[in-house]
Amino acid sequence: MNSDRRADANIKLRSHSVHDPVTNSRAWGAGNQQQDGRPFWFQRRPSALSVETTGYALLAQIKLRELTYAAEIANWLSTQQNYGGGFVSTQDTVIALQSLSEFSALTVGGDLNLHCNISSANGFKTIFRLENEDTLLQKTVEVTKENIRDRLFVETQGEGTGTLNVEVKYNENSNDRRELCPFDMVISTRRINTDQDPDEEIRYLVGDELLINIEVSYLGDTNTSMGIIDFGLFTGFTPNKTSCEKVVKENSFVARYEVSDRSVIFYTDYFPIQREGSISFEFQATCAFNVTNIHHAAVRVYDYYDPDEECIQFYTGEGSNVVQTLCNDDECTCISMYHLQVTNIREEDGYKVVNATILDPIKRGDERDVHMHDSREFWLSRACRCPDIRIRQYLLIGSNTLEYTKPDGNGAVKGALAISPLNTSKGIVNLVAAYAPTLAASPDVKNKFYSELDELIGQLPESEDLYLLGDFNARVGAEHDSWPTCVGHHGVGKINENGQRLLELCCNRNLCITNTYFQHKEKHKVSWMHPRSHQWHQLDLIITKRSRIGDVHTTRSYHSADCDTDHALVISKVVLQPKRIHHAKPRGLPKINTACTADTVKTHKFNASMKNFGPLFLMKLQNQDGVSLAPSSTSQPLMLLGGRKDKTPTGMMPT
Known about the structure:
Elements: H1 6-15, E1 17-20, E2 25-28, E3 33-34, E4 43-44, H2 48-63, H3 67-79, H4 90-107, E5 113-120, E6 125-131, E7 152-159, H5 177-180, E8 183-193, E9 209-218, E10 227-232, E11 237-239, H6 241-250, E12 254-259, E13 263-268, E14 279-287, E15 297-303, E16 306-315, E17 325-328, E18 331-334, E19 336-348, E20 351-363, E21 375-381, E22 393-398, E23 416-423, E24 428-435, H7 443-459, E25 465-471, H8 497-509, E26 511-513, E27 528-529, E28 536-537, E29 540-545, E30 552-558, E31 569-574, H9 600-610, H10 635-641
Parallel strand pairs: 24-25
Antiparallel strand pairs: 1-2, 3-4, 5-6, 5-7, 8-9, 9-14, 10-13, 10-15, 11-14, 12-13, 15-16, 17-18, 19-20, 19-22, 20-21, 23-24, 25-29, 26-29, 27-28, 30-31
């Protein structure tokens, strides 16, 4: 900024900007561009590189004190913030926020006292009040489609400056492959070093080398900016660093690499568009311990400055010999193989329910009572990575089968209970895993489940701790006023029939639902989304005795955990404080005055008396050394020789 040519440099910088006179905003690089066929509020977000460049340009204008020109840049940057206040990636967010903060420090001042009224034509209305103490807070309100139809009205009064962000979500069908995966990836693996007999079952042994090859190109119109290839590795494998260093040295696209716990990350200068070529390289991974039944590993490819341009593809190693059995170490399970015809498909309670007729039971596995033309029903989780099932014929291969009973004739899922006592330093802690019947189950099935659960709780000793955890298929809602002993102040939604049954049990057994006792974000209170209404609910609960609620520090959902289910992971942190047990200090054995052994009369009497105790105590005291005797044998020496007291100096306590 102290250069004599700073004015010329600034003129050149401004010549590359894009100005929008309608919004009085200015940016560098690709700005917002409306896309045909999309709602007016849907705009293609700019790249992270554009946001970062514009942020640096704003900092330059601030240093030059060109505040009028800088205001146009600040207008554009403010409109690019996402709903959470960030931008595209971490780096551009830091630069943009720094530039906006410095601009705000120079231009915005005074008190903040704003009243913001948000309303719609059909009666929805909410009021925000922003004051000085709210400057670091973000206030939110959820507006559903029932509250607003086409327009949202915002009216502000008072003084100060604030930012209003509106997040709108909608779904659309897309057959464009590029929107699903903007990269073309080909991944292959080949074993290059192994001591295994080719006739043995395929598995990976310690020291086996796996050669992994990838070829990547971008399906867009122009080359990307810096690219990332995050290569996940199979369980038990570590990357060969020598081969990775060879990739960086010999491949002109790859700049460097990093190794994490379960993956190796390659950084590229850019991804070329498909018509101009591709990035292709290979590296080696070494097996650190014996592995069998290897699952797929994921490769994530994305543009560092535009993370929305990403694609994830799974790859696997060489096939394994699983025609007759599925083996894991020394344990093998017979498989089932059926030729079947799918007859009906329906959605129910978050599951895809598939009805099929068995045309040919090719291999029955562990289920022997299977015949042609039998009907079977399969429940597939929404999170299942399964092919798109249609009304057609399939060859079904499975590792085992599970007998399924329709308790009420309509396919409702029955409940299940399992108990696991833990022996802790505090005492016995009983963990009861529960899966409650769904709403579709009959009242008899529900009554039976809750009756069995109540009976199980009643059989446990009152002194032992209890934690119920699982999918209760019940919504207890925010019903603290109605159920103050069972529900805390932070429940979610409204109660349903299953929730009523559960709360009655908790009330009778003096239990409380820990999920409702801790203040978290709404997304951390819920664990399952209804497939049709897309409403989130709190179904997975952790319940304990009301007297033990103080041992629970928090209970919340973790949506980032990959649990291969459509339910979020729920974790409760519990501190088991053991009771203090005070032990009385045992009294020591009396000490015998061995100095009396110098008296020949007393020594003679002692030796004569010891003969009455048998051979164990036949001894003669011939000197003044200490004598070691069993506890039961101390009374006779004390009576004949007398006891001895330690001499303690005046003013000191014995130790």
